[in-house]
Prior knowledge:
- Helices cover about 10% and strands about 50% of the residues.
- It has one helix at about 5-15, and strands at about 25-35, 45-50, 55-65, 70-80, 85-90, 90-95, 95-100, 105-115, 120-130, 135-140.
Amino acid sequence: MPRSILNVVMVSAMILASRPLTAGEPVSAHDAWSRATPPGAKNGVAYLVIKNSGAPDRLLDVTVDGAVAGEAQIHTHVHEGGMMQMNHLETLDLPTGETAFEPGGLHIMLMGLSQPLKADQSFELTLTLENAAPVTVSVPVRDMRR
Ligand SMILES: [Cu+2]
């Protein structure tokens, strides 16, 4: 291969390798929100919609800043013998398309709040996926009583 063509190939490869990691990633999140909590509440809850425009993936972990809560967990609601219970999921399959976390269903449980969640604040959640790059989403807090 002539040296000039080799140089073009090498420069192209470097441009491809230097693109931002987040550009064109198949998994993103939108419509995130969290519920304001009364004083003394131990746990909070957050909702969001995860959009997967690629091949099926899996949510492995959700993390939250330690200044907000001790831990974020993936929870779902199940009806069992007329009782509503929450189940802690270790991971969650994300088929192609949208997976909605919403009241009465899937939710992110914020275990061990450091302080009450106040309306008009926001915090970040980071989603760790099996295949796609991590997704960080800003979560505004809403006061549902307003
Ligand atoms: Cu829960």
